[in-house]
Amino acid sequence: MSARDNILKRLRERTDGPLTAPQSDFAVVSGRGWSQQERLARFERWITSVHGEVIHTSRDDWTRALAGLLEAKDIRRLALGREHPVAAEARAALAEGDVVLIDADRDIETWRHEQFHDTDAGLTSTRGAIAETGSLWLWPTPDEPRLLSLVPPIHIAVLDADTIEDTFFDVVEAHGWAGGMPTNALLISGPSKTADIEQTLAYGVHGPRELVVLLRHAEERP
Amino acid sequence: MSASEVQTFTPREFHRQAHDALGNPQIRANFRKAMDGLMAKRRDVFSDWDLETLRELGANIRLRALAKLPDLLERLEANCQANGIQVHWAENGDEACRIIREICQRHGAKAVIKGKSMVSEEMHLNAHLEEAGIEALESDLGEYLVQLNEQTPSHIIMPAIHLNTDEISEIMHTRTGTERTRDVDYMTAAARAQLRERFMAADVGISGVNFAVAETGTLCLVENEGNGRMTTAVPPVHIAVTGIEKVVEHLRDVPPLYALLTRSATGQHVTTYFNMISSPRKPGEHDGPNEVHLVLVDSGRSNIYQDDELLDTLRCIRCGACMNHCPVYTRVGGHTYGTTYPGPIGSILMPHMMGLEATKDLPTASSLCGACGEVCPVKIPIPDLLVRLRREAVGEGRGNVPGAGVKRTKKEVAAWKGFQWLATHPGVWRSSTAIAGKLQALMPSKLGPWTEYRTAPKPAKVSLHALVKQHKAKRHQAGKSDEDGGKRS
Known about the structure:
The complex is a heterodimer. Chain A is an alpha/beta fold. Helix content of chain A is 26%, strand content 24%.
């Protein structure tokens, strides 16, 4: 018999007999009932508590905020997608400037060295966020592959304020994750970090040193 | 410890190793400081939660998964395969090592990069691969430092917790040529640069799994550094290795366990990354591995599964909170246990993996204060299980643990039998305590390990029983005279 059959046989022919599965009540991880304002406040508080940076902007004006950010952080080479509206709008807005736009929708084998060594930042869209933990959620696509949010030293993520939900459980349920998972689904809560040297927190160990969230509001904020 | 000293540890030498660790002020200070910080952080991060209800749910999710374990493993396998993930089964660590080595060899792999995986530590995978001429490099910073220092992890979440900044600086200086410094950012940046090159060059990435979701065939990895994402996305082949108990039924079971795990482990409200992998690179996608393998390892777990009480051991989500709160672990450190999993969880798990003969001292490495059971996010009754294993070790259990009865000695059995007889025969008991009181001076002052730190007990000149009897007799006498007096008045 194979290892598989042996293991399953031992589990099925359990000495103390079959077990009864209890029912689960998930109320404790759902039903927060926060207002949009509370959600925003919590999201911002948590993500900034782990060194995430939040820049408030508007749907119409966000590329100006992006351009300002690129200049402030001296980002000269930006990797981004092409098809997602976030990437398309960014490309249009940055077409005339000095920033070199690097196509992320290429097989990694053709530009690995460039991605690891010659890319200052990666720009991605997000599907939404979680207020309770200050987490972004991303489902990478061929247009915005999974390493785009990991390898460049700065990750710029574009988030719409109205896509922030209360809890991780709420997101999994509301968006029917169980019905079809992508190749890779990610929660990202801040830049990469470690405390492996005597509990001293250090940012930017393997992934990005900085995470900047461009938080887009539907209306111009006063 | 300096970079040059390499020490090996074994559970057979627990007492000697504990003695050494207790006499090492550096180890004592490093662990004390770290554990105090972790306990405080955990307390704070749960402060606005209904923790009991959340723990109840966590325990309940794990119990449900175990109740359906064989079915869920089959479902996990079917869904992974449907997604393009290749699934392998291994009865023990050797078999798992062989499976992993063969996958590496099929791809002509020379260099493997690893994300943190305790199961791979359990099976000594690195040594196995190196014997086959395949270099296995740890990429979690703590694991990397421990590997540079030719050690094993001393904590399941924070592998290098036994080292302080100066020691780490010395290790990095000696092994990688960095400057001697106390600047943690400098050392972190140096390790980043060293490891990034290795990620790019690696032929295979090997990771562990925190939760494997049967419903969707999804592998979940929890981490802060990004090395887990690198390991699972940069090399052309990804091999995930995990114990068969890590499966959960539904995707919705994951958020509560994740909430419990990060808060219990390091007092974080969330980790930087939660990485969910459901397939290899699909046609049209531009990165990620072309092959993903899942290796399911038994290694004694299906044996633990047989017994209703021992089963609770398998609920564990490997947060390490039991270690952080254990007064014994905090004082002796992780290496003293000489096992892959140290601390309370190690003491109830390792006897099943290594047998009680090698690990007989571990279940007694506890004061049974109960802290481990109280903080366990999935409510494993660890103290009860420690007691159960103590009973198994002396042959008073059900014999369901390998090596059961190893501590049973004729002398001890006879002594307890004798005591039982004595204590149930009041006449003999009284006369023997009276004799013991008279022969007080003959009582030995050295009673093995007991008197190493304590004075030997001395039987009282007059036993409590005799004292009570005397007291009653006096009262009786006095009562009689009172009665007489009353009559007179």
